[in-house]
Here is the input.
Amino acid sequence: MIIPRLLFRAITRVSPRNLYNAWRLWFVPGFAALRKFRERQATGQFFPPFFFIALTDACNLQCRGCWITSQGKPRQLSLEDVTTFINSAKRQGNRFYILLGGEPFLYKDLITLLQTHRDCYFQIITNGVLISPESVREIARAGNATLLISVDGFQPANDFRRGEGVFEQIIHAMKWLKEHRVLFGIATTLTSTNWEEVLSHEFIRWADSQGAIYLWYYIYRPVGPTPTPDLALNREQIAAVRRRLLALRKESPIILIDTYWDAAGRAVCPAAAGLGYHIGPAGDIELCPPLSFATATIRDNNGDLSQTIQHNSLLRDFRPFVHARTRGCVILEHPQDLIQFLREHDARDTSGRDAYLELGQLQPRPSHHLPEAEIPEDTWLYRWLKKNLFFGLAAYG
Here is the structure.
């Protein structure tokens, strides 16, 4: 019953043109990008099938535990830099890009970017507050983007972390997206205070009623200038999250995506697997969104992205460094080892703060790595999806 239920919602909620473009520009090229990624791996080459692009570090909110802060004047990528970057990545077969911030709706060229690259598909991670009827119409007209709106529970839980009145503004944004039949989902960060609520039947039914097609879960990581460690999940809660997800998937009316486990239930780190890197708002090629360190930029080698990534020791050595310690998140489990690794590679702090100091203050914590307690996917649809279409795209929560 899963497939008919999901298909019915997609067909009745998303315009035919938007749905066709999602298939033509997101899913089909995604399969191809993964195939090329595996072929490159077999020959000792590597280039990720997906990228996260932080268009700006400006944001209109100050969420508890967020690691994005602009110091002084906000940084942002020029449209020219983004276009050069995407054109270089397209030569390697990449067609799917995740646009982040800060808040991407503060990037004045956002719609122009979608219109310029109509042969690509974009996922826009947003807090939803700056979405307007006009921007929704433009996105629907472009037809090559899905929005992922951050919601951390019902109004009390969401506004506790994101600010008073934010939940109500998000409701309006989703109403406009639903009216214009734009494909969108909800991103939810799992914390110690909200995980049971957002993994409840009630919350999933609410997300479905707003018109969302998918619900994307992330586990909170206490990093940044105000890490708020009391929001982090403990090992028992992480295991409970995994069990709850598997149970909910059997009856959820919308797609439930996690960013952490493969089909066999083993932990996944996208950066350690070489699956996706993060482009910072100054053009730095960073390991992942919460790890703001780099030794290269998108402008190196005259913009030849393949050449830059292939010969970057920080990116190359990160994989064996992590795999020697965990399949999960090395930031959480081994912060002191991580500092040493970054210093050995002369990695620049690209955060605009003092990220080395922040890492040094972290205490080791459990991540989604559950050795000898892995729980495999138990529905054929999600097993197939996780084997054939990579879902582990982390984003700002």
DSSP finds 16 helices and eleven strands in the chain. Residues 391-397 have pLDDT under 50 and may be disordered. The domain at 2-279+369-388 is CATH 3.20.20.70 (TIM Barrel).
